[in-house]
Amino acid sequence: MRWRLSIAAVLLIPVMEIAVLVAVGQVIGIGWALLATLAGSALGGVVIQREGRRSVHRLREMLETGEAPRAESGNSALRIVAGVALLVPGLVTDLAGLLLLLPPVQALVRLWLLRGLERRMSSDTANQVFGPRRVRVRRDRPAATDTGEVIEGEVVEGEVVDTSTPDERATG
User: Fold this and answer.
1) Which residues contact 134 (CB under 8 A, 6 or more apart)?
2) Is 97 helix (H, G, I), strand (E, B) or coil?
3) Is 133 in contact with 127 (CB distance < 8 Å)?
4) Using CA of residue 99, residue 100, residue 102, residue 104, what is the dihedral sign?
5) Beta pairing partners, 160
6) Residue 101 has what DSSP assignment?
7) What is the rounded distance in angstroms from the CA atom of residue 100 to the CA atom of residue 86?
8) Residue 149 CA, distance from chain mean position
């Protein structure tokens, strides 16, 4: 199913770009519309070049110091994607690239991507990649699928540790 969506996007994006270019060309003139497209592509080249250098420099620093990747690395990757979107000729991809250069949009996209990755990973892998997770326990009402057995615990480096007393376990 996903490959069908990918093929549809690859086929529809050029059609959409041409339609938008013609519509914008009718409003502001085709020369100005083409100039805006060329300016977007030039900006994309500058963004990719600048961000590529920064990314390589940061990657070297992280490898030398043994430092874990931070949110800046994700933002850098998103800026490179924005540069590629700007580099692709077309006003719609230029708009998407410009939006992706904005920090609030980067934060939303990064959060959306991380949540998607976490959903597709096993909990052990997610703990290794993203660090240990906090688990929120609600005691007010049991879930519909609850078996009635309650085990109190806390997450420590990806493992659940039983913190209940032996008496609580015997009566639980």
Assistant:
1) 155
2) helix
3) yes
4) positive
5) 155
6) T
7) 10
8) 37
Which distant-in-sequence residues (6+ apart) come within 8 Å of 46 by Cβ? 83
Chain segment 17-35, per-residue pLDDT in tens: 999 999 999 999 999 999 9
pLDDT tier, 172 (very low <50, low <70, confident <90, very high otherwise): low
Contact in structure between 13 and 20 (CB atoms under 8 Å): no
pTM of the model: 0.61
Give the contacts of 154 (CB within 8 A, at least 6 positions apart). 135, 160, 161, 163
Tokens of 62: 């992280």
> Which residues, listed in sequence order, are joined to residue 154 by a DSSP beta bridge?
161
Q: How far is CA 152 from CA 95, 122, 139, 158, in A?
A: 50, 22, 10, 15
Per-residue pLDDT reduced to its tens digit, 105-160: 988 988 888 787 777 777 677 666 666 665 555 555 555 555 666 666 665 655 55
| DSSP-H helix ranges across the chain | 2-28, 30-65, 71-87, 91-100, 103-120, 123-130, 166-171
